[in-house]
TrEMBL record:
Belongs to the UPF0111 family. InterPro entries: PhoU-like_sf, Put_Phosphate_transp_reg, UPF0111_domain. This is DUF47 domain-containing protein. It holds the Pfam family PhoU_div.
Length: 207
């Protein structure tokens, strides 16, 4: 059982992971039922999640400044809080790029990539739930590997999606727009993997 004085940080990590999950689900919903006329409204909803996630990180950093004892190194707490926040930031970035680049039609491979982000964030939430008992957890390393595997899948899909885009799309503006969106979707998966690797590093240093 985590010590009571550590609970603030573990709760903050959980909240950060939960906002990432909510953002990923919102992105997936937008892509599965795409309506460009609703994109601006969905961006506002996404920004509210991103702002809330920022608030969680700021609260944790404020506490960290004055804390005497922490569950692990201050630098690691700061890093994990940052990379969790990066996930939500990156997911918001996908919607922003779709709006900036005036995407009007959805592509199937982009929908698949958004679903991978949902899977990765759900695994992150499970991983963060295991963090308070990392010394005894039987599933923590499995979750790290699962997120790594999702990122590998996303990389492969990104490569094939970019090739399909450049070999089948004749509209240069659409090529530019989707090149941008695909890269931001890939960044989401990369950031999810960074969370998993950060937690893995923390566990290794404290076991």
């Amino acid at each position: 059982m985590a010590r009571q004085k550590d609970a603030f940080y573990f709760d903050g990590f959980r909240r950060g992971a939960d906002y990432a999950c909510q953002a990923a689900k919102l992105l997936s919903e937008v892509m599965h039922d795409f309506n460009p006329d609703q994109l601006r409204e969905r961006m506002d909803s996404m920004h509210a999640l991103e702002k809330a996630a920022d608030g969680v990180r700021h609260d944790m950093m404020d506490e960290l400044v004055t804390a005497f004892i922490t569950p692990f190194d201050r630098e690691d707490i700061d890093e994990l809080g940052r990379v969790l926040d990066d996930v939500t930031d990156s997911i918001e970035g996908v919607l922003n790029r779709m709006y900036y680049d005036n995407v009007t039609d959805m592509r199937d491979d982009a929908v698949q990539m958004s679903d991978m982000v949902v899977r990765a964030t759900e695994s992150i939430r499970e991983l963060v739930d295991e963090l308070p008992r990392f010394r005894r957890s039987k599933t923590l390393r499995e979750l790290v590997f699962a997120i790594n595997n999702i990122e590998t899948e996303a990389d492969h899909l990104f490569i094939e999606s970019m090739r399909t885009l450049h070999t089948t799309c004749t509209d240069p503006l659409q090529v530019f727009a989707w090149h941008d969106v695909y890269r931001h979707l890939e960044q989401c998966s990369d950031d999810c993997e960074r969370v998993a690797n950060t937690i893995d590093s923390i566990v290794m240093k404290n076991s």
